[in-house]
Write a structure and sequence with these properties.
The N and C termini lie far apart (62 Å). Helix 2 crosses helix 10, helix 17 runs antiparallel to helix 18 and helix 20 packs across helix 25. A five-stranded mixed sheet has the order 6-10-9-8-7, with helices on both faces. By secondary structure, the protein is of the alpha+beta class. It is built from 27 helices and ten strands. The chain has three domains: 167 residues, no CATH class; 132 residues, Serine Threonine Protein Phosphatase 5, Tetratricopeptide repeat (Alpha Horseshoe); 204 residues, no CATH class.
């Protein structure tokens, strides 16, 4: 039996573990309120602490005691009474009519309002509207629902608990269920060496800045107010914390995209121009073009062409450049690219369940040259296993807690730069031959541990051995270098299939396109890269035989 099932208070232990972790590592950043809460919580009776955590884990701040019945806690009213002196919860709070309707069922609403409710069969929303004018003032729950024997409870310290969750996880996306998944054995995590130097939050301003950014992000996602108001509330100057600064830049970029969709070219350009998020410069050129500010767009294009930030930007510039040149009367330039080998296959339409890549795989595979469907999995796995130590290096802002699938700054533009020495050491193994032993050792030692690059369910030792036998180390190094150049963009787009000739120790990559399919941008970039560096790659175009 696992620990969750045999320990009824596993969630309480997990919550206390968070408090202990924060107290040990972040005490110098805490407010007096947070420090007092951490000190007072373990002194309460166990049922009170358990009920409190149950309320924290549930949505909202208002609950009925009858809905908080848990066998291990016992009477929720008695447990709640033990919490009263803390000020963290309130018994029988004053609530609005809207809040009351969230708590009561339709039969209970009918019992509570009696003759005031003329349409007892109407929907709850309609009943609420009908009663709203006559019951505008808030009342205690017991005053609203006089004949009920239930008790309402309101928790007042959800924001405090959310701040503690933020300090622990480094984000507000993860919640308390992460512990349960770990305890059940559904997820396993790499053990990272934590130190004061590797803390993501270095001072209290970092926590406050994160909360400000999160609030702005939530407001923007809701779409209930003008984007101008959110931009006004966003800090204009860069944060001193690189990890937080990347979040600020991303939100600026997203709001810029919103302005662009609204064809508000001036505001879109203003945000892109002050944003260093990947892709912002390319979007700024596009917006200037849309605004018919062609000379400004050309000037920025020339700057970008001199030093493209990524392959994705280079590809974008190759498309927009000829249009701008034509607008301004500049000489026409032709961008030449290496065309990959083309394979044309015409096959009968299969019966039953099938998929295009699988059909081509079965057609091309043979005993001495097996074909595997790997898409992005194999290249990422080889990179992740070779560079495991670098990916999980405990640098500031990378890891906050023991429940991480990968570093928090994985998609930051400076991800590789911040770990330059570690990645250089890993890639050096491709030069001196150590790489094979490292990859296979990590495959055995780290099996099942969450990684942003290794999909364990689709990987086996046989495939790894074949890949290491047939793919030259120089090619693997080029794959790794390209992934590191832009993790977010370059971890995808790899060809669908790979064919191995074990006796000849060679391989071939094949991108499959069915009838009407076109190569996507990230696929074109990978194919161009492989062709440029002499790696064998083809595009297979499948057509179906016409029935007689």
């Amino acid at each position: 039996m696992n620990r969750v099932l045999e320990n009824e208070f596993y969630y309480l232990d997990n919550f206390q573990g968070v408090l202990d972790w924060i107290g040990q590592r972040y005490d110098d950043l805490l407010t007096d309120e947070e420090r007092t809460f951490i000190a007072a919580f373990p002194a309460l009776p166990q049922p009170a602490r358990a009920l409190f955590v149950r309320m924290v884990m549930r949505k909202g701040t208002l609950f009925r005691a009858s809905k908080l019945r848990y066998a291990e806690i016992g009477c929720p009213v008695e447990a709640a009474r033990q919490l009263l002196g803390t000020g963290w919860i309130e018994h029988d709070p004053v609530i609005s009519l809207d809040e009351l309707f969230e708590l009561l069922s339709k039969p209970e609403i009918a019992a509570a309002f009696g003759a005031h409710l003329q349409q007892k069969t109407a929907r709850k929303a309609e009943q609420l509207e009908a009663l709203r004018a006559g019951f505008a003032e808030g009342r205690s729950f017991s005053a609203w629902y006089r004949d009920g024997d239930d008790l309402a409870l309101r928790i007042h310290v959800k924001p405090l608990c959310d701040r503690l969750r933020l300090i622990f996880f480094g984000n507000l996306r993860q919640d308390w269920t992460e512990f349960v998944l770990s305890d059940l054995g559904l997820f396993r995590y790499e053990q990272v060496e934590f130190s004061s130097a590797s803390r993501g939050f270095r001072d209290r301003r970092d926590i406050d800045h994160y909360l400000l950014l999160h609030a702005c992000k939530e407001r923007f996602a809701e779409g209930l107010e003008p984007a101008d108001d959110i931009v006004r509330d966003l800090p204009e100057h860069a944060f001193h914390n690189d990890w937080l600064e990347s979040r600020r830049e991303k939100l600026l970029f997203q709001i810029g995209q919103h302005y662009e969709k609204q064809k508000d070219w001036d505001n879109a350009h203003a945000l892109y121009a002050r944003c260093r998020f990947p892709g912002a410069r390319g979007r700024a050129i596009r917006v200037l073009e849309k605004a018919e500010r062609y000379s400004e767009a050309w000037e920025l294009l020339c700057i970008a062409q001199a030093a493209p930030e990524s392959d994705a930007e280079r590809q974008h510039l190759l498309r927009i450049g000829p249009r701008l040149a034509r607008r301004l009367g500049h000489p026409k330039t032709i961008a030449r690219r290496i065309e990959p080998v083309r394979i044309d296959v015409c096959l009968p339409m299969p019966q039953g369940d099938w998929w295009v890549e699988g059909v081509v795989r079965e057609h091309l595979t043979c005993a001495d040259a097996p074909v595997f469907y790997v898409e992005n999995m194999l290249a990422n796995a080889l990179f992740g296993l070779l560079c495991w130590r670098a990916v999980f290096a405990a640098i500031p802002g990378a890891f906050f807690h023991p429940f991480h699938r990968g570093p928090a700054d994985l998609y930051s533009p400076d991800f590789a730069q911040r770990r330059a020495a570690e990645f250089a050491d890993c890639l050096a193994q491709l030069d001196d031959g150590r790489y094979r032993a490292t990859i296979m050792a990590h495959f055995a030692e780290k099996a099942g541990i969450a990684s942003p690059f290794v999909a364990w369910d689709y990987l086996d030792a046989g495939l790894l051995e074949l890949a290491l036998d047939c793919i030259p180390a120089a090619h693997l190094k080029k794959w790794c270098e390209r992934i590191l150049a832009d993790v977010k963009e370059n971890r995808t787009g790899f060809p669908d299939l790979i064919q191995f000739w074990p006796d000849e120790q060679r391989y071939h990559m094949i991108e499959v396109k069915g009838p009407g399919d076109r190569l996507q941008d990230n696929q074109l970039r990978w194919i161009d890269y492989c062709a440029t560096h002499g790696m064998p790659v083809s595009v297979c175009y499948l057509q179906w035989e016409q029935a007689a």
